[in-house]
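Protocol step 4 of 6: structure prediction from sequence.
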Amino acid sequence: MPARKGKNTFTFAGMAISRQPFSLQALIRLTRFWNLVIIAMAQYFAACFLIDRALIWDWQLLVLALSTTIIAAAGYIINDYYDIKIDLINKPERVVIGKGITRRYALLFHTFLSVVGVALGLLLGLRVAAMHMVSVFLLWWYSNNLKRQPFIGNLVVALLTGLSVWLVNLVYYENHALVSIYAVFALFITLVREIVKDMEDLKGDNTFGCRTLPIVWGLRRTKWVIYGLLMLFALVVMYLNYEYTKLPEYYFLIFLFMPLGLFVARLVVADTKKDFYWLSQWCKIIMLLGILSMVFI
């Protein structure tokens, strides 16, 4: 039987459960508000600084950013919905579902946001709406199954992140090389970050039978996977730059290779959950630096 905790909460299986259906603060935490800001920034910066600065006032860009972030928010909700037990081990202080918002309302918000995101995509055309529908399905599949498999779940999230940047080309019927390069950048950095997060969450994932790369191959071999991905990333970006854009070398040195060099240096000696958390946050900073670098192009 559940034990009483207080006026608005009670405990069940060691977790404090809220009697209130949801709170606005919990919903904001659940949808990773600042991550959504980064997604919107990436799309706005790509459109305004890589294609045409006048697009900042374009209604299509606003709808694109709004629909993409809404679908991403729905993805965060469904991910936490399926991961309550794992998150209680990996990061109990950040668990929201069951504390600040009930499971029923979380599922309701996920469905509502997914439908709204796809509907907004229809305003931009059938192709964008179709991409959004595929994204909704993949985010659900990832949360329900793929994230517990080695590498494939990481790749799906990375592809969707890269797609969110490339959609700018799709909306404006462009094939702008710089937008594609930044989409590749977002893909690789997200892929590396997702693998690092698996290394950080090794204990909880292993407890509940997940088969992520760190569990299947161990931390040492997983690090070599990341080294290989970073090498491939650098080669792909430099090749695309040489063939299509020819940005100066110092640009990549400042905004890419120096931050990645620090990442690799810390990864070599990383061994604890705290170390991998730092690396995960540093990947987010590298992503933000990449977005801000569009201003100087």
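Step 5 (inspection) to follow. The chain has a mean pLDDT of 89.
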